[in-house]
Amino acid sequence: MSSSLKIVYPICCGIDVHKTFVVAVIALTNENKVTQYYRRRFSTYTHQLIELKKWLEYYSCFEVCMESTGKYWIPIYNILEDECNICLAHPKYVKAIRGKKTDKKDAQWIADIFKHDLVAGSFIPPLKIRQLRDLFRYRMKLTGFQTGEKNRYQNCLTWSNIQIASVASDVFGKSAQKIIQSILDNPDEKPKIEELVHKSMLKKVDELELATDGHFTKEQADKIRVIKAHFDALTLCKDNLDQLIVELGQEFESQRKLVQTVPGFQNPMTTLRLLSEIGVDMTQFPTVGQFCSWCGVVPANNESAGKKFSTRISKGGKYLKPLLIEVVLGLAKSEKHPEIRNKYLQIKKRRGSKKARMAIAHRLLVAIYFVLRDNREYDASLYQAATKPKEMTLEQAINFAQSHGFSVA
Q1: Strands 11-17 and 21-29
Q2: Is the pLDDT assigned to residue 303 strictly greater than 90?
Q3: Contact, 111 vs 14, CB < 8 A?
Q4: pTM over 0.85
């Protein structure tokens, strides 16, 4: 590393993280810009990580940089978080020179580039937000498992030619489940539809009788019972998880109420899911542009020799963007917020639905950023004022018409 570069952190540490051990190198730079290195290897057992913490304190080293290797960095981060300022870097930003890689050299390379402040650190929210994020991501997994079991359940019905899904809107609704359970309990008898369905479905009795004129084989009947039992177990687990999320989210009640004023985020669980991904402290992002870039909803820069290449959005925010798209699609169908819906339809007409969704998601994030940063509620009038249609003078209107081939008398 060139000695002409400014040394920002005269005492710092680079940590190369692995599954079973870490290699730490402390770089001590004196007034003459001469650096001494102290190396040690620690296992990833807790008592060894505490030793690492004491070792750093011995050298008064409180600036630490490490790469985000899988999930292995998390326990190290948790132990050092209280005492050290940790820069967690993406591996591509701290990758050592090819052909000169060893564990010791990797750790020293991280320390060298970090002491010159050449490492872009990742945004790591506080512990409570990280825990909330972990619960919500697990909730998404459970929802995916539920969807899979619903599809398998429907496959069993199709196999047996029980076409309740063609009549009832949800085969997991009360009426549909009573009918299916009656068929399973008494396979040789026709179900008494009138006694099983809700009064709102009495007009569909004749159609339901035709739809249930099928037959479960023993194997399909056993399979559908197992599927239903698994689905019910998943539902119970999800309900318990929701309770944990609500209890943990009480700490962010004030921020949740602020974000609920933004269109599309009236549901408390939707709002908490958003906060679990972006955090509540917007001062972590110097500008709203950097915030939206971190969320992955703005085009990337890709230019060389005066040529601009792909400007697709980045791959960041893979858990956040699906949530935003769900909210945008809901707003596009509703007329409660015309300032959002009209802009969506306007962009969709020119650029297509995909770009319109992402554009509105970007606008919502901008609103959320300022709501949290300034601690104030969403104001639709400001949005409407910013998107007020432009007015033309008479001369401009004549020029516009002539430019499009019209003759003006």
Answers
A1: antiparallel
A2: no
A3: yes
A4: no
